[in-house]
Amino acid sequence: MLEFDALDTPPMRVVRPHEVRSRLGVSRSKFADMVAKGQFPKPFYIIPGGRAVGWLQRDVDAWILNRSSNDVRAAA
Fold first, then answer.
1. What rounded mean pLDDT belongs to the chain?
2. Which stretch of DSSP H or E encloses residue 70?
3. Which terminus of the chain has fewer Cβ atoms in its 10 Å neighbourhood, N or C?
């Protein structure tokens, strides 16, 4: 059994497409286009052979932080 120290490592959380779209503020079609063009990471299948997909929340957070830091550097 895996044990996590609450102070050191937050538990991993899988976020589904609707939550990612909501956080980014984009439509379903825009989000699908971003994934297809490689502008956003591809999801993984939550259950092998299933249809449900998701992303690790830390990966989504990292992508958002990377985008915001790129925009700040480009504006300078």
1. 87
2. helix 57-75
3. N
**How far is it, in rounded angstroms, from Cα 32 to Cα 20?**
11
CA distance 61 to 15: 11
Rounded to whole angstroms, the Cα distance separating 11 from 34 reads 27
pLDDT computed for residue 44 by the predictor: 97
What is d(CA 34, CA 3) in angstroms, rounded to the nearest whole number?
A: 36
pTM of the shown model: 0.75
Region 35-51 average pLDDT: 96
